Amino acid sequence: MAHPHPGGVVAYRGARAITARQFIADATRLAARLPAGRHALNVCADRYLFAVGLAACLMTGRISLLPSTYTPDVIRQLGEFAPDAFCLTDDPACDIALPRVHWAPADDAEDRETAWPAPAIPASQIAAIVFTSGSTGVPLPYRKTWGRLARCVQNGAPRLGLVERRRYTLIGTVPAQHMYGFESTVLLALQSGNAFSAERPFYPADICACLEAARRPRALISTPIHLRTLLAADTRLPPVDLIVSATAPLPLDLAREVEERFGTELIEIYGSTETGQIATRRTALGSAWRLWPGVELSGTAELTFAQGGHVEQRTPLCDVIEITGPEEFLLHGRTADLVNIAGKRSSFAYLNHHLTSIPGVLDGAFFLREEEGPGATRVARLAAVAVAPNWTPAALTDRLREIIDAVFLPRPLVLVDRLPRNATGKLPQQALQALFAAHSTGRT
Fold first, then answer.
1. Is residue 327 located within the same domain as residue 360?
2. Could you tell me how far CA 249 lies from the centroid of its own chain?
């Protein structure tokens, strides 16, 4: 921990400030309660409880499992991957099919007998295993050592201006279990001497209330979809001293509007589950990304690799990248983002940008249809879903016809009340295909 003394504030739970000493005391108590298994699935929704669970596992040599979802199939696969795994939860109604440990910290006075400073953790110790979905749907594990995880956020803190004497309160709209939330709220606070809010506000009114209650200076750790929704809401935006965004590229117009409305800087982070965070940019001022210290890119126009610094191993990136200097690059979209229809090429990012730029379209996305059954064809066909209360599908399609090539017009364009985004604002392909299937069969 980077907190220089035991009275330093690590987190806020509601109006209560939790000190570094109390954090270690809670982690020590929990560590004594953990079962024999070496692998822990930490699903605590309270960010502070998640952080204490992480610390308890680190202190006892256990490994935190961080999958992207908790579907029964994923839990079954986790059980096969780590038969000794148990679930650490703060939800009494949790029904995850693993041995469960439910806990909540005591609300008693601070434990002043806890040893200080915080225990040291070997840099080579495996702290977590994160998972990405492979091409077959089976989660692929990536082991993260404590030393490289700590080095990542230690190197990133200066880029965000979080190593000054001012101690920030970090408010995250993303879950602690997601790699971005894991690094940018929990680990960043612990390794830079700042504090984080235990809350995870989701709706605009909740985000504003959480910001208003947080001690300044305060930083909002969020995503493009949350920021767009926040700006569109009819609510007063509290002052914020820093805004950080990740999980998807931030459009220039949105970045500039966020900075103007909040009167602060917005810094965008680039990274992946496999590599962790590796670059930042001030999106409103330029499109070039600046790499983390020690991280290097290499490869060709078709495939780029990241290595060095805190990156565990030479790792291919799933993006089209143009290397413009030893420490800089431009991002041209995801390799899986490109679409070829009737010999013409475009990208989903380009199509989605034009769809959501139409006045009255609150959210929207293009995707490739997956057809089954006797009427299915092998021809790639685009579909799209949109949240546009004042439009009809025909009128919105006609408007799209004016700004994109006709071969990329969605067939069909489905209007919905909301898109099935996950906690980080991403749109799982399975959810989009389910929407298309429901539309095709006439179900709502």
1. no
2. 12
Write out the residue range of the structural domain in which residue 370 sits.
342-440
What are the tens digits of pLDDT across the range 274-312?
A: 999 999 999 999 999 999 999 999 987 678 999 999 999
How, if at all, do strands 126-133 and 63-66 pair? parallel
Q: Are residues 384 and 244 in the same domain?
A: no
Which whole number is the average pLDDT over 23-51?
96
User: Do the domain assignments include residue 337?
Assistant: no
Same-domain status, 232 and 371: no
- In a 10 Å sphere around its CB, with 0-12 CB exposed, 13-18 middle and 19+ buried, how is residue 422 labelled? middle
Residue 86: half-sphere exposure toward Cβ, Cα within 13 Å? 15
Return the CATH number at 103.
3.40.50.12780
DSSP string across 230-279:
HHHSSSPPPP-SEEEE-SSPPPHHHHHHHHHHHTS-EEEEEEETTTEEEE
- pTM of the entire predicted model: 0.81
Nearest to 58 by CA among 77, 42, 47, 70: 42
Q: Is 123 helix (H, G, I), strand (E, B) or coil?
A: coil
**Cα separations in angstroms, 97 against 93, 138, 177, 345:** 12, 18, 18, 45
Q: Quick check: 43 and 89 in contact, CB under 8 A? A: yes
| DSSP-derived 3-state class of residue 139 | strand
- The pLDDT tens digits of the residues spanning 215-244 come to 999 999 999 989 988 998 888 899 999 999
Question: Residue length, the chain?
Answer: 444
CATH number at residue 348: 3.30.300.30
